[in-house]
TrEMBL record:
PANTHER family, alphabetized: ACYLPYRUVASE (PTHR11820), FLUTATHIONE S-TRANSFERASE (PTHR11820:SF90)
Taxonomic placement: Bacteria, Pseudomonadati, Pseudomonadota, Betaproteobacteria, Burkholderiales
Name the UniProt record assigns to this protein: FAA hydrolase family protein
Keywords recorded for this protein, A-Z: Hydrolase, Metal-binding, Pyruvate
Alphabetized InterPro entries for the sequence: Fumarylacetoacetase-like_C (IPR011234), Fumarylacetoacetase_C_sf (IPR036663)
Native organism: Variovorax guangxiensis
Metal-binding in keyword set: yes
Length: 229
């Protein structure tokens, strides 16, 4: 039996709809600017160029009904509502035609972003980690297995804050759909079981404040509710 100098980190996991077992989370990949209108609002050309990715640690997950702790050293923290893909199997150079066979299920997620720190990093040509990969930056709801959700390719994706609509779009508006995203990502990384992919956000990203209540939803997948504290 292997022994360790310190206690190993805990396994981070998500609940699965209708099941007592949980889904262990390995890595979290996020697709940047994957909706045309969001690309425009961020000042970029929405033409279909190769996708780019950034990562968050599994420890950044906040459960549905949980609390998002407003991070220190920031004054401009934004919400980004996303469809999350959970992989049951992995591999390298996966063909787009085979990609959906690797999917365990889907969830509603939030890519919380320290926009001020991200902006500073961009100006200085530095990585985005402090703006994207901070504690609590990946709220995520329960997983809905493919057997229940199918593979949603269209339908409303929405975020309300304090009961008022902030973001709304349609999954069909993704520049890179789920199969193409998995296929492209697998040329950069050997994907593994337990990996999550946050698939990008529609337009309407904006700041949150302490005391706000966020409610995100994806048609056919579910709802995610998180309080900002």
């Amino acid at each position: 039996m292997t022994s360790y100098a310190i206690s190993p980190a805990p396994v981070h996991s998500l609940p699965i709809q209708g099941d007592q077992v949980r889904f262990p989370v390995n890595r979290i990949f996020c697709v940047g600017r994957n909706y045309s209108e969001h690309a425009r609002e961020m000042g970029h050309n929405p033409d279909r160029e190769p996708p780019f990715f950034f990562m968050k640690p599994a420890s950044a997950i906040v459960a549905d009904g949980g609390e998002f702790a407003y991070p220190p050293l920031s004054n401009d923290v934004h919400h980004e509502i996303e469809l999350v893909v959970a992989l049951k199997t992995g591999g390298a150079n996966i063909a787009a035609a085979d990609a959906l066979g690797h999917v365990y299920g889907y969830a509603v997620g939030l890519d919380m972003t320290r926009r001020d720190l991200q902006g500073e990093a961009k100006k200085m040509g530095r990585p985005w980690d402090t703006g994207k990969a901070f504690d609590g930056s990946a709220p995520c709801g329960e997983l809905v297995p493919v057997a229940r959700a199918g593979h949603p390719a269209s339908g409303e994706i929405r975020l309300d804050v304090n009961g008022a609509q902030r973001q709304v779009g349609d999954l069909a508006d993704m520049i890179w759909n789920v199969p193409d995203t998995i296929a492209y990502l697998s040329t950069l990384f050997t994907l593994q079981p337990g990996d999550l992919i946050f698939t990008g956000t529609p337009a309407g990203v904006a700041a949150v404040q302490r005391g706000d209540r966020m409610r995100g939803s994806v048609a056919g997948v579910g709802v995610l509710e998180v309080a900002v504290v």
